[in-house]
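Entry for the shared binder. Reason: the reviewer on the internal report wants the predicted structure included alongside the sequence.
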Amino acid sequence: MSTELEGKSLSATLWRERDEPAWMTALRKRAFEDFSRRSWPTPEDEEWRRTDITALDLDKYRIPGDGLAPSRAEGSAGTPEEASGVIRFSGGACAFSSLDPELAAKGVRLISLAEAIGERNATIESAFAEAIARSANRFESWHYSQWSHGAFLYVPRFVEIARPFFVDFVESGSEAYSAPHMIVALEAGARATLIERLTSGDEGELLCNDGSDVRLGEGAALQYVRFQGINFKSRYFNNSQASVGRDATFRHFEVAFGSRLHKSRYECAIDGPGSDTHLDGVYFAHKRQHFDIGTIQKHNAPNANSRALYKGAVRDAARTVYQGLIEVGRNASKTDAFLTNKNLIMNDGARSDSIPMLRINTNDVKCSHGSTTGKLDELERFYLMSRGFPRVEADKLLIMGFFEDVIAEAHEAIREQLRQSILERLD
């Protein structure tokens, strides 16, 4: 059935049978039922009030193929020295996969989701089931009913890994639909770093409906970088979540530079006491790009900490929106949470909206938020120019300085790429 429907519009393929285990088909059907009950978001929905998609023609995007075959490139046994493992997808198909043999011997897994669901992995099954049950909008239900390809990273108990894992999604196609998914599971005491990069060629318009699930066991630690750099003709949507267990440490870093429209929602459930969560991000919009980024620090357990720091710049006729929420449950006393968003507007005609929020349902907490939006400081510019810097170079120094403290929070493997991306945007 899927072969007959390849290339047809999404209106004809909102449900399609796939060659996969029955339990996954049942989960897809459950997500599709939820999709069918919902309507597309409109500006009447609070989270979508500043991002209007009513004029977006979703019917024109086509599904190029399944991307579910766990294919691998020949000669993929070697792993680069700077990485513990690498998996790369090209056009929805797994093109390259490698893992350090010593880690594989310890039970570490870095495999395609197609391979993982073939083994009926209980972690994956529960992650999908719980995400479908708490789906926040129609795009998320759509993602779980039609995810197209993805990867699974698993680290067993007390395995500590110094070198990062790399997952690359290289998307392609013309008016094509893509729905990559990433699942990360770290057992108690495990430690790892994951760098995920989603990119595309300069040509071809994509609709990317992305998602990820992270599960951290007791005392686990994960540093997770997500880089979005698809072409400016494309649209990008992301609905992701994480669950942080007792005494676990989670550092999530989001980077948004690509796509004509970027709408993301990251919900972090802080489920264990003693845990420490950091949600950081960098975004830079230009031309007519529209970025709408949301984070939720959801405290469900007492005695836990969370911090969010997002910094963005906007120029030309672009617009950015940041919506951040700290939500503290009834049983989450002694929560310590902070949220900061800072925006730099580089010219008249650019626009930036910052909406930090608190929702506190208990006492004995320490929660606050801060937000600033403004232009470059004229006195700082004058000082640099008085020391011999041309205006353009002075502005570059000030802008790089604006971003530097949050860039320092990113993993060292991505810092120079971040700096270079910002400089390219300035040029």
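Summary line for the report: The CA atoms of residues 104 and 264 lie 33 Å apart.
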